[in-house]
Every structure is written in C-alpha cells, then in structure tokens.
Amino acid sequence: MRQPLVAGNWKMNGSSDSIRELIDGILSGLETKAEVLVFPPHVYIQQVRDLLSGSPVKYGVQNASDKLSGAYTGEVSPLMAKDLGCEYVLIGHSERRSIYGETDADVAEKFCALVDNGLVPVLCVGETLEERESGATMKVVAEQINTVLRAAGSERLANFVIAYEPVWAIGTGLTASPEQAQEVHADIRALLAENDPSMADRTRILYGGSMKPDNAVELMAQTDVDGGLIGGASLVAADFKAICHAAGQ
Ligand code: PGA
C-alpha cells in the first residue's frame, strides 16, 4: 500500500512573515493520512525547520546541485539540505528545465547525488502542450524517466518519487482531466514495472499542475495517482489542507 504524499512547491514566493503565517495555518487542524511536505525557498529552510519542529509535516528543497562542495557560486549542495534535516529534494521541475536549461542528463546526475547522500528525489516529468498535441506525451516522459533509470542503476532506485506535471497545466488553471492523468500515470507505472515490478508497486507517482481543492478529490481517486505536487494552492493554508485531506481519504 502506497501512502499518499502531498507536497507544496512554494517556488520563489514568501517572506519570513508570510511563511510563519502559512505554516501556522497549515498546522492548525491539519488531519490527514497522507504524508505532507513543503518545499520552501532555500534561504527559509532553517526557519521552516524550526516552525515545523515536532509536527508531522516534512520539508525539502526545490533544487540541489549534483556537486557536494566547492567553487559553485549560487548552488546548494545535497549535503547542506541533509544537514538542515531535509528528506526530499525536488529535481527536474519544468521551470528548471525550461528557464535554466537543465537537461535530462543534468537531472539524472542530481538524482544520483541525492540518493548517494541519503536524500529522496522527487523527479518531475511532463510534456509541453505541443508535445501532447503531436501525440508525443509518453515518448517525452519515458525519455525523461529512462535517462534517470539508466544513470541510477538498480541500486539507487529503492526510494524515490515521480511527479507527473504536464507543462501546459502548471500555473495555468488548466488541469489534466482525471482520465488524462490516470492514463499517463498508468503508463509511467508500466514503464517502471518493465524494469522492476516491485519498484512499480512501491514508487509513488504524484500529479501536479493546477491541482486545487475542487479537483483534488477526483484526481486523487485515480488508481495510479498517489498524491499531488501543489504550486499555487500550496500558498493558501486552507486550500493546501483541503488537498491534504482529499489525499488521505
Ligand atoms: P501549480 O504548480 O499547482 O501552480 O500549477 C505546480 C508545480 O509547478 O509544481
């Protein structure tokens, strides 16, 4: 049985004051069987760690380097994330791919560095609208995943998460229909099963892309949707909690 996971991706939003308020709001009356985690901007990790102390809500970083230390100005090491108590690290978000030019190979290197240092990667994959319309969705998603599987080798695949985020649904208010999401999630699980059926069984596949309280229940009800990666709605405590609640039903 896969425990549902709901992760809030705050992106480059927030201040010390707004983050305090948001976390207070999330923690007050949060009741869910889902695992819950937030991805704040790096500079607020220490604050978030203090605010979440003693609560069941976990936290991680939105990106990390594939290097561990040295002359890499502006980068954050997996070891630093680990040092501050992060468990999960988001990698390969479409904004990192499209704005900062990260390739499948870059993402695969980060994946390996994270696993080797005791962190759990949340690997984002997804197609653009053009790719979907040309029927290339699964080709693109499979290549994004296979590049990681090849680089990781079987020994690094014990514990990771996939987030399927159709690029056309991120921050646009457009959501994949439950059927569209289920179709891709099932294909991703089948791809994992070709490598190792037990990996397919245990690996959680989250949906992301304009998930909101009013569409979360139906999306989460799909057999292969194991939770959500939430952007905009994770900045509103009540919405985020409603999604956590939907995931735990
Ligand atoms: P959104 O973002 O929920 O605002 O669409 C999701 C994401 O980018 O992870």
Briefly characterize the structure:
The protein is of the alpha/beta class and 249 residues long.
Which CATH C-level class is it? Answer: Alpha Beta
Shape: globular
Q: How is the quaternary structure best described?
A: single chain
Q: What is the arithmetic mean of pLDDT? A: 97
Order of helices and strands: EHEHEHEHHEHHEHHEHEH
Distance between the termini: 14 Å
> How many individual helices?
11
Task: Write the CATH fold name.
Answer: TIM Barrel
Q: How many whole angstroms does the radius of gyration measure?
A: 17 Å
What does this structure look like?
The chain has 249 residues and is of the alpha/beta class. The protein has one domain (10-247): Alpha-Beta Barrel (TIM Barrel). The chain has eleven helices and eight strands. It has an eight-stranded parallel beta barrel with strand order 1-2-3-4-5-6-7-8, surrounded by six helices. Helix 2 links the parallel strand 2 and strand 3. The longest helix has 18 residues, at 178-195. The chain is globular and about 45 Å long. The site of 2-phosphoglycolic acid has 13 residues, from strand 8.
